[in-house]
Automatic annotation (TrEMBL):
Residues 16-311 form the NADP-dependent oxidoreductase domain. This is General stress protein. InterPro entries: AKR_Detox_Biosynth (IPR050523), Aldo/ket_reductase_CS (IPR018170), NAD(P)_OxRdtase_dom_sf (IPR036812), NADP_OxRdtase_dom (IPR023210). The keyword Acetylation does not apply. The keyword Oxidoreductase applies. GO terms for cellular component: cytosol. Keywords: Oxidoreductase. GO terms for molecular function: oxidoreductase activity. It comes from the Bacteria. CDD domains: AKR_AKR11B1. It comes from Halovibrio salipaludis.
């Protein structure tokens, strides 16, 4: 897979990265460690050069699994990204934002231990914390950057105004926002801001919690702690609208490119100006088999317009990913 410069850093990444939220198990119905390690190995074997995780994904479980998967000599084959600034209680039933200096100092060492590494390539503030002064957060990150514990400073789910505030104190290298065919709010201000300021992007939610795989049906059941039970996209008439859009997109992809909707969704992301890496969430090795389907073709302006027309015709009640936002303290 081709590589791309990660903003204004010396880090190289691939257009597709591996997202490991589901591997942590929390809100995804549990995890299988051996299968998860095999998935990470498969991703690397297929040329994926960025692995993204976070402490809150399984309350350390995802980071531990990623660490074990990379400990066999694969660590230097990927850019390793994780996050900071969420906290939780002992029962794991409450999560809140905490970007205080003390939390960052504790979390970075916990992450380094779980990941079995001496440095984190891309360290991202998971959500902005309104209870902590931005300068305090920035100074803590700057300290880690100068110490060599992290190679790039990133944020996730930040607005341009919040990124401006952070950059008053410390350089900012990347943003991780939600972005996919169905969730496009960042096109208005955030993506142009990143392009204009040389800020790399790692977009998450490429397949919109599985909607854009083409495998969801109206009678698909979500059990246990699966977050889609609370996702408004998967409820009632709105869910039917999104399924209709997926069916139309799949027909378009097959007729125009002899591809399926999953390949179309990823190719669409990779072709967006300002997108550095699009995360592909997988928890089983075979889910990565289609990764080669995005190579060797691209979407032109006519195709982009046709896709927009399908979305406008099929979805009259769109909704974003706001339901996933954790509360402040």
């Amino acid at each position: 897979m081709e590589t791309r410069a990660f903003g204004n850093t010396d880090i190289q990444v691939t257009p597709v990265g591996l997202g490991t939220w589901a591997i942590g198990g929390w809100m995804w119905g549990g995890t299988d460690e051996a299968q998860s390690i095999d998935t990470i190995h498969r991703a690397i074997d297929k040329g994926i050069g960025l692995v993204d995780t976070a402490p809150v994904y399984g309350f350390g479980r995802s980071e531990e699994i990623v660490g074990k998967a990379l400990a066999d000599g694969r660590r230097d084959q990927v850019a390793l990204a994780t996050k900071v600034a969420l906290n939780w209680n002992d029962d794991h039933d409450k999560v809140w934002r905490d970007a205080s200096a003390s939390r960052i100092e504790q979390e970075v060492d916990d992450s380094l231990r779980r990941l079995q590494t001496d440095r984190i390539d891309i360290y991202q503030v998971h959500w902005p914390d309104p209870e902590t002064p931005m300068e305090e957060t920035a100074r803590a990150l700057e300290k880690l950057y100068r110490a060599g514990k992290i190679r790039a400073i990133g944020v996730s789910n930040f607005t341009p105004a919040q990124m401006d505030e952070l950059q008053k104190t410390v350089p900012l290298h990347s943003l991780q926002p939600p972005y996919n065919l169905f969730e496009r709010d960042i096109e208005q201000e955030t993506l142009p801001y990143c392009r204009e300021n040389g800020i790399a992007t790692i977009t998450y939610g490429a397949l919109c919690r599985g909607l854009l795989t083409g495998k969801m049906r109206e009678d698909t059941q979500f059990t246990g702690d699966d977050l889609r039970k609370n996702d408004p996209k998967f409820q009632g008439e709105r869910y039917r609208q999104y399924l209709n859009a997926v069916a139309e997109l799949d027909r378009f992809a097959r007729e125009r490119y002899q591809k399926n909707v999953l390949a179309l969704a990823l190719r669409w992301l990779v072709d967006q100006p300002g997108v550095t890496t699009a995360l592909w969430g997988a928890r089983r090795p075979e889910q990565l088999d289609p990764v080669g389907e995005i190579d060797g073709w691209s979407l032109d302006g006519e195709a982009m317009a046709a896709i927009d027309d399908i979305l406008a015709r099929c979805i009259d009640d769109p909704v974003g990913p706001e339901f996933m936002a954790p509360p402040a303290r």
